[in-house]
Amino acid sequence: MTAREGRAEPNPVRVKTVWRKDDVRIGLVGFFGWGNYGDELLRRVWEQALGPSYDAAPVHDLLQEPYFSRSADTVAKEHDALVIGGGDLVIPNKISPLYWNRAWLQRPVVIAGIGVPTWIRQRVPSVMERMQDFFQHRNVRYISARDEESAEWIRRELRPRAPVHVRADLVFSLMMPRAHPYARPTVGINMRTHSAGSDPAELVATVRALQEQGVDVVMLVLGTGQTRAKDLEVSEGFPVDLPILESESLDELSAYIGGLDLLLSNKYHGTVVASMYGVPSIVLSSTAKSRNLYRRLDRLPLLSSNEDPQMLDKVGMSRMPVSRIAVDVLRNEAALCVREVRDVIDSVL
Length: 349
Fold this sequence. Notes:
Layout: E1 21-29, H1 37-50, E2 54-58, H2 72-77, E3 81-84, E4 109-114, H3 125-135, E5 140-145, H4 148-158, E6 164-166, E7 186-190, H5 201-212, E8 216-220, H6 225-236, E9 244-245, H7 250-258, E10 262-265, H8 268-277, E11 281-283, H9 288-296, H10 311-317, H11 324-348
Parallel strand pairs: 1-2, 1-3, 3-4, 4-5, 5-6, 7-8, 7-10, 8-9, 10-11
């Protein structure tokens, strides 16, 4: 491994704005404000893409149910259009009054960059019926899913009127900050609260083997706000005493990833951002979205888990470079989705 200093993300996607409609309000519907790294990056996507032209902000003002201090109907009437997504928002056994609130359907609705956790087999009939009613409504003007697996599930199970496009994770459309320069070859790890109960023995053994090879290992807390506090607690409980890098700045967190030589990631968007910088990432939470991403990047052998006895072998395999061509395809696809969303909003307002 060789240290990568000061690396900057090339070919940023820039948004050109020539006019602004301050009196037009676009409501952003998503898991925004809780501090989850990926969701806050997705919020940034919409703020950068729509904010220069419109007044665009999250619709909710509470971080717990009912999410609104006023009725959702009142909130909807205060907006001219709503953008829902991205993230794993389509869940077949429960429904959120934040994402799939019927009140939103009185306005033009755009659904973009969403995923379906297809590993959930339980389907609650009332939930499925409500989501079908939502997706089939005439005011849903655009739908895109993060991967073909999610798109096909939506087409088959929800049967929407609007076509379902497949577009890469929207975070790929963002411009990344200059990478943080580490003094020595450095491997990063990130943990998350719902993986804290797994047996870390293999991960610990991998960390100690890397340290014996003269590699620095750091713990990254990929979250801000509430999520930062919870993930920090998990990180501090890791059996090996490691330097912990944390911040309330998304740019600082991304820069920490960008300067690494390898990331061992329990968080999907940690892997997304690492791939954007060209940093290899071993996926420790092999969910459907991670498998679909690594299928497109031709890196399926690097799917792993905290308990994987082959983890150290995969560290060796991770030396295969991240394909810049494959990443550029995803970047262009995500940028296309952002342009499509803007065009739809422009056409209905």
